[in-house]
Specification:
30% of the residues lie in helices and 12% in strands. It starts with 5 loop residues before the first strand and ends in a 35-residue tail after the last helix. By secondary structure, it is of the alpha/beta class. It has a domain of 89 residues. A 3-stranded antiparallel β-sheet has the order 1-2-3, with no helix packed on it. The chain has a 3-stranded parallel β-sheet with strand order 4-5-6, with helices on one face.
């Protein structure tokens, strides 16, 4: 099979072998069985009518509030850039913990960076306690 990346006959395929199923952004509130797919064509097309942009906004809101994340298509980003990002993510997370901790969020003035597993939790009954930002 030829190396392909992108939305191909339904699922999202990356050359690293990652495959994710996708779905439309419809369904019962709070429930989903597939990852929603959002088509960004209205934002990247200069001829898209305003009502398409309004619909797109509603789809993004639905995916964010009902599921929490989504797949985007027709974003106009070259797939090689996407592939390189996945490669860099894998390379970072394959590092030993002590090297990842060098990029810890507590070493950043903007609190951005690596956060070790179980560090943050919104559920007090689970390891990590409460949500917090900033140096420990």
């Amino acid at each position: 099979m030829e190396d392909i990346a992108g939305i191909v006959n339904g699922p999202l395929r990356l050359s690293q072998g990652i495959v994710r199923t996708s779905a439309s952004v419809r369904g019962d509130a709070g429930h989903f069985s597939e990852i929603p797919t959002i088509d960004l064509s209205p934002m990247t097309s200069p001829t898209a009518p305003p009502e398409d942009k309004i619909r797109l906004t509603a789809e993004i809101r639905d995916a964010c509030t009902r599921v929490g994340f989504f797949i985007i298509k027709n974003h106009s980003i070259d797939w090689k850039i996407v592939e390189n990002a996945f490669d860099a993510i894998k390379e970072f997370f394959d590092l030993p913990m002590e090297m990842k901790m060098e990029a810890h969020e507590s070493k950043s003035d903007s609190f951005q960076g690596y956060e070790e597993p179980y560090c943050t939790s919104f559920d007090r009954s689970k390891k990590g306690g409460t949500f917090r930002h900033g140096p420990k």
